[in-house]
């Protein structure tokens, strides 16, 4: 087990959010606001599938990578096809 001093942990908590963290929070907000807020799901699996569809069909094709400015679809097309 790794030991971390309390002062190091609290210093870590105070660090500014990374661009990735900000993008993740923005995505979560978008999902809640536009996708999930419009529906009532009968079970957890239906909600999980709907979230998956949102990410794969809408978010991933448009989201940009921070290091190369490609969407995940463009990146895969360039490197794997």
Describe the structure.
With 81 residues, the chain is mainly alpha-helical. The protein has one domain (21-80). It is built from 4 helices and no strands. It is extended.
In terms of topology, how is this protein built?
Blueprint: H1 6-13, H2 19-35, H3 44-62, H4 72-80
Give the overall form: extended
> What is the string of helix and strand elements?
HHHH
Alpha carbon gap, first and last residue: 43 Å
The radius of gyration is 18 Å
> Strand percentage, roughly?
under 5%
* Mean pLDDT figure: 78
Q: Care to count the β-strands?
A: 0
Main beta sheet: none
Which residues sit in consecutive blocks of at least 5 with pLDDT less than 50? none
- Find the structural class using helix and strand composition: mainly alpha
| Tally of individual domains | 1
User: What's the tally of helices?
Assistant: 4
Helical content class: 55-70%
Structure described in brief:
The chain has 81 residues and is mostly helical.
Keywords:
single chain
